[in-house]
Write a structure and sequence with these properties.
With 488 residues, the protein is α/β, with parallel strands linked by helices. The protein has twelve helices and 19 strands. The protein folds into two domains: 132 residues, no CATH class; 323 residues, Peptidase S8/S53 domain (Rossmann fold), CATH 3.40.50.200. The chain has a seven-stranded antiparallel sheet. Strands 7-9-6-12-14-16-17 form a seven-stranded parallel sheet, with helices on both faces. A three-stranded antiparallel sheet has the order 5-19-18. Helix 8 runs parallel beside helix 9 and helix 10 packs parallel to helix 12.
Length: 488
């Protein structure tokens, strides 16, 4: 049994698991009450949740179909993030326009017919979107490949180093070692902060997981951290985020050094751990609301690059539902953040979110032969491929060989961090569009003709060289200003 197959009587006909008694509501521009507190302030017991939203039709529908409700803002304002009790204040124009300032999480009794309530709310002019609080899980299901294999430290050198050599990592890091001021956010299942392979590589990070043990379907068992608020994004069960972290930032004690060089890692735990019926290994599971909150938090904490090794198949969504993560992806792009996502492991041509959004660099997987992996999800939105088969990386306790597009994406995210570092070294402004353009233009060719896998195989050294050429060809700041134009 998978999370997709679990019974959801609160959402009959749904193809994707959603949390019982939970929904996400975005109000139209100008309609959001300033008085509703953020979830973070409620978790820290600064405020209690609001029990009403508009004093009008929304509240009447909630009362009729749900009874008592708890309402919180999903996102904190960038200006008030560090100010307990003021996180619902000071949203700026970008936060209002993208919708993050007017998006709420509504909690009800688990037996509430959420699907019916959503249908009524969507008919109101003051409601922009209403949707279930869907969940996302990792690892992605893979075709013909297990995702994680825990192993010791006795690596075969060829096995451990070949993927790194495939993207010309050594040459890239000799050319640009990375800037410790550049922060790369890993939005995932958390990390093992004391792992010797990542010593000194992690910033403090945050944990936005808010799953209730009694709020999951029958047969699901929540594992690990259930604290109301947590500034330590620790993963004790899944290891998915740790696999990504090793590829990005390992110091090279028993596995190849991380591709992001001296760039710092900001771990954001957005996926909790759960035991699923019929499955031995725990999975990472997180609600869309928690994932989105973590993504915005990473941007507001200064992450210049985000690695998102998770996704939701478009085919599993309610056709009338908003696409997961749309608002926070737009917010991150407008803040100048570079977003990288795994394309998916379905082995088919299809769309996963957030990989398919404009502004996100969707990354597929390639094997050492130069052929795209059999499990990699394809499509016109895929930008390029990176190594994703049998990658030697860190585990929660020791090391692992990891397979899946989840572990191809960190190669691309690390490459993006090096490009940002190079641009900052040369005092050149760079954005996500330029990073994507250069990464795609500098790829190595596949070993076989293919389609839907992007421009080729990540080549980090070539990308850095092309960035320098791009900077050299750009007009110098003030180059068109002549002495006669200057005013004394």
């Amino acid at each position: 049994m998978t999370v997709h197959a679990l019974a959801t009587p609160w959402a009959p006909g749904a193809r994707l698991y959603s949390l019982p008694g939970s929904m996400i509501l975005k109000l139209a521009l100008g309609e959001a009450s300033a008085a509703v507190p953020t979830r973070l302030d409620v978790r820290e017991r600064v405020y209690v949740p609001a029990t009403s939203l508009d004093g009008g039709p929304i509240d009447r529908l909630l009362a009729q179909h749900a009874g008592a409700v708890h309402i919180t803002r999903i996102f904190s304002s960038a200006a008030g993030f560090a100010k307990a009790g003021q996180r619902h204040l000071g949203f700026d124009d970008i936060e209002h326009v993208t919708g993050v300032a007017r998006t709420f999480r509504i909690e009800m009794a688990p037996t509430t017919p959420v699907a019916q309530l959503i249908g009524y709310l969507r008919q109101l002019s003051t409601v922009e979107t209403a949707s279930h609080n869907y969940t996302c899980t990792v690892p992605f299901a893979a075709t013909g490949a297990a995702l994680d294999h825990a192993i010791g430290v006795a690596f075969d050198d060829d096995t451990a180093w070949a993927p790194r050599d495939q993207v010309f990592a050594a040459e890239a890091l000799a050319y640009e070692p990375g800037d410790s001021a550049v922060v790369l956010g890993i939005i995932d299942s958390g990390v093992a902060p004391d792992h010797p392979e990542l010593a000194g590589r992690f910033r403090s990070g945050f944990d936005t997981v808010h799953l209730r043990a009694d709020g999951l379907a029958a047969g699901m068992r929540l594992l690990g951290d259930k604290s109301p608020t947590d500034h330590r994004p620790i993963d004790n069960y899944v290891g998915h985020g740790m696999g990504c972290a090793g590829i990005i930032g390992a110091i090279g004690e028993h596995i190849p050094p991380g591709l992001a060089g001296s760039c710092q890692i900001l771990p954001i735990r957005v996926l909790g751990a759960a035991q699923m019926p019929g499955r031995v290994a725990p999975i990472g599971i997180g609600s869309i609301a928690d994932i989105d909150a973590g993504m915005k938090m990473a941007v507001d904490l200064g992450a210049k690059v985000l690695n998102m090794s998770f996704g939701t198949a478009d085919s599993a969504l309610d056709p009338e539902a908003p696409k997961p993560h749309a608002d926070v992806v737009r917010y991150a792009c407008l803040r100048g953040c570079v977003l990288v996502a795994a394309s998916g492991n379905s082995g088919r041509q299809e769309v996963y979110w957030p990989a398919a959004f404009d502004g996100v660099i969707a990354t597929g997987s390639v094997g050492l032969t130069g052929r795209p992996s059999a499990f990699t999800t394809t499509g016109d939105h895929v930008a390029l491929c990176a190594p994703g088969e049998h990658i030697a990386t860190a585990a929660l306790d020791g090391y692992q060989l990891a397979t899946g597009t989840s572990f191809a994406a960190p190669f691309t995210a690390a490459a993006a961090a090096l490009l940002v570092s190079r641009a900052e070294d040369r005092s050149f402004p760079i954005d996500s569009a330029v990073v994507r353009q250069i990464l795609c233009a500098s790829t190595s060719p596949f070993s076989t003709q293919t389609s839907g896998c992007g421009s080729g195989i990540l080549n980090v050294f070539s990308a850095l060289q092309q960035l320098d050429q791009h900077i050299d060809a750009a007009p110098a700041v003030g180059a068109d200003v002549h002495e006669s134009d200057l005013v004394a």
